[in-house]
Design brief:
The chain has 600 residues and is an alpha+beta fold. The chain has helices at 18-32, 71-82, 108-111, 123-134, 148-159, 194-203, 220-236, 290-298, 318-326, 414-432, 445-450, 479-495, 579-599, and strands at residues 2-9, 39-50, 58-67, 89-92, 117-119, 140-142, 240-242, 245-253, 256-264, 272-277, 281-283, 303-305, 308-317, 343-345, 357-364, 368-371, 381-384, 393-402, 440-444, 468-470, 505-510, 517-519, 566-568. It starts with a strand and ends with a helix. Mean pLDDT is 92; it is low at 533-559.
Length: 600
């Protein structure tokens, strides 16, 4: 099969039907300089929208093409294309090679130690557990929240005004925070695991079009079934998944993990705690598991502060975004809801040594702003879209970069403190403005720039389910964040006309875009203990459960790569940012764990 890349296609080629097929066939034949009748088969491998010129919005595609003459004819077509000037590139197509998982469950090393434990069922935890299960290791997966169907009921109840369930909500439960998102499957990393993640998603029921879309997404409505199917695959391969079950302690001896304490909360009349043998634990707890971060810190695991971002959600009419991005082509049925991605670096503000980054994140075309709180008396917002992206509004996070220089103190969890202060301030600000518990503070862009509380937007109806309280967001945003937003809004509007429309709505606060900590791991993917000496033993003790006194030290000798048995993984551990990168990291960590069993 030949692969033709950088091939321009008219928008009508993205429709269904014979006419669209003819357009694609003609374009492929023209690129190969052959009659359309010589093409035996065409397969769409990749497609994106080129909207750089609003008068010429079109698709750019990569096609897989088989010629009727077979391999010899295809080789001649490649040679001819190399000697012909043209925009399209032609080469031999390399088909996808499925993921191969080594079988290690029957090895002596695997049989002589407890089965691995995976903490969390977000993308990192699910894909890690799936790999381990298929490797024959029968992983035990623990998830503090509920299974996805019970989780949806809890989220719907909170959206309708019921009290917050601190164990099951938009942050916690089967599928992780990504289940209630746009389901974006794009990433800035170039990982060899990415193609496997996409194919595993399709295997679990995702639409096959995610394999060829340049910006694939699944949508929250389809993700529900997909994460359930992945869990069933884990169980069918020998794994066990326990919901409403949280990791509550880790115990080490001589620098090596020996036991894990887990607590099941869905028991009556009291939670049930169990201490189980554990020599390998994958910590894929997600970016909001603050109590888990505390227990890891207090167990003596080396952690460090990490830059992250905070801000608000900004909502516009989806039609405004469509027109800004596609011009007169905005209503073409092949295009769907337009997205955007904006970023800039500001000049230093007064008292700063360097400027801040301001950018949009997790843009949700045709989506809604969601109630993402996970702690009492704190307001958190996020965004999600369904697969059809057919809502009236577009929303995106508008975030400002923060770093250790903005934190109070040296505690690895100082960033968590900043997040929590913002969330609680948002809760109080909305209440003070006459709002109900967990309503979100909101303000139009025009009123925000004018520093006035104002009132409802005349163009945008906020989609936050529990309702908003109109107020001045300056009252709940750190001053440096508010100043950066004020500085950035007009400049971003020059890049996307209408972004700073005075009637666009800002809803606060978004604090959970990524983890505020990093659980340091070595090249062997394992965490390091702060008090481990070069010999691999805990300094001063032969056997211990490390306590808070060891939490802030530096690893004695990173180069020796101690085998602690604790594998930090995914977004919560500070090694991913989004569904794709988290899932890739899950496979990567699982592969490292399996390799360690093969070679010990």
């Amino acid at each position: 099969m030949l692969e033709i890349s950088n091939l321009a296609l008219p928008l009508d080629a993205g429709l269904e039907g014979k006419q669209a097929e003819k357009l694609v066939r003609r374009a492929a034949a023209r690129a190969l300089n052959v009659p359309p009748s010589d093409i035996a088969e065409i397969r769409l491998l990749k497609r994106s929208v080129d909207a750089r010129k609003k008068h010429d919005v079109h698709f750019v595609a990569t096609l897989g093409v088989e010629l009727a003459g077979g391999a010899q004819t295809e080789a001649a077509a490649i040679d001819a294309a190399a000697n012909r000037k043209g925009a399209a590139n032609v080469k031999a197509h390399r088909p996808y090679e499925p993921l191969r998982v080594p079988q290690v469950g029957t090895t002596p090393q695997a049989q002589n130690e407890p089965r691995p434990i995976v903490v969390g069922t977000g993308p990192a935890g699910l894909f890690c557990a799936l790999y381990l299960a298929r490797a024959g290791l029968r992983p035990l997966v623990v998830e503090r929240g509920a299974a996805v169907d019970e989780r949806m009921a809890a989220v719907d109840a909170f959206n309708a005004g019921e009290p917050l369930d601190q164990h099951t909500n938009i942050q916690y439960g089967e599928g992780g925070a990504g289940t209630f998102s746009d389901g974006k499957l794009t990433t800035n990393i170039k990982s060899p695991w990415a193609q496997h993640v996409l194919h595993l998603f399709v295997e679990a029921g995702a639409p096959e079009e995610i394999l060829w879309q340049a910006k694939p997404h699944i949508g929250t409505d389809l993700l529900v079934d997909i994460v359930r199917n992945i869990r069933k695959q884990i169980e069918q391969a020998g794994g066990e998944v326990r919901f409403n079950t949280q990791l509550t302690a880790l115990h080490f001896e001589n620098g090596r993990l020996t036991q894990a304490e887990i607590t099941r909360f869905a028991t009556q009349p009291e939670p049930v705690t169990e201490l189980i043998p554990a020599s390998r634990v994958v910590l894929a707890c997600g970016h909001s598991a603050r109590d888990t971060f505390e227990l890891v810190r207090d167990a003596g695991v080396h952690m460090e502060q990490k830059p992250f971002s905070v801000g608000v959600r900004i909502e516009h009419p989806q039609q405004l975004i469509n027109r800004s991005q596609y011009g007169k082509a905005a209503d073409h049925p092949a295009l769907g809801a337009a997205d955007y991605k904006l970023s800039m670096h500001l000049r230093p503000q007064k008292g700063e040594e360097q400027g801040r980054g301001v950018y949009t994140f997790c843009m949700c075309p045709g989506g809604e702003v969601v109630c993402a709180a996970s702690e009492p008396e704190g307001v958190v917002v996020n965004g999600m879209s369904r697969f059809a992206r057919d809502g009236q509004n577009a929303n995106s996070a508008m975030l400002v970069g923060v770093g250790p220089e903005d934190f109070d103190g040296e505690d690895p969890l100082a960033g968590v403190k900043l997040q929590r202060e913002m969330e609680q301030a948002a809760y109080r600000t909305a209440i003070a403005a006459g709002g109900e518990p967990y309503q979100a503070p909101a303000q139009t862009v025009g009123d925000f720039l004018a520093h006035q509380a104002g009132g409802p937007s005349k163009q945008v109806k906020p989609t936050y389910a529990r309702g908003v309280a109109w107020c001045d967001l300056h009252e709940c945003l750190p001053p440096f964040v508010a100043r950066a937003m004020e500085q950035a809004l007009p400049q971003l509007d020059r890049r996307l006309h209408g972004f700073a429309d005075p009637q666009a709505v800002l809803t606060g606060v978004e604090t959970r875009s990524s983890s505020p900590v990093r659980i340091v791991r070595g090249k062997n993917m394992q965490a390091q203990l702060a008090a481990v000496s070069a010999s691999g033993c805990v300094q001063g003790e032969a056997s211990t459960s490390l306590g808070p006194s060891a939490a802030y030290g530096q690893p004695a000798d990173v180069a020796l790569e101690p085998e602690t048995g604790l594998y930090p993984c995914g977004e919560g551990a500070g090694y991913a940012g989004g569904i794709m990168s988290a899932a890739c990291d899950g496979l990567r960590v699982a592969s490292a764990l399996v390799e360690s069993l093969r070679h010990e």
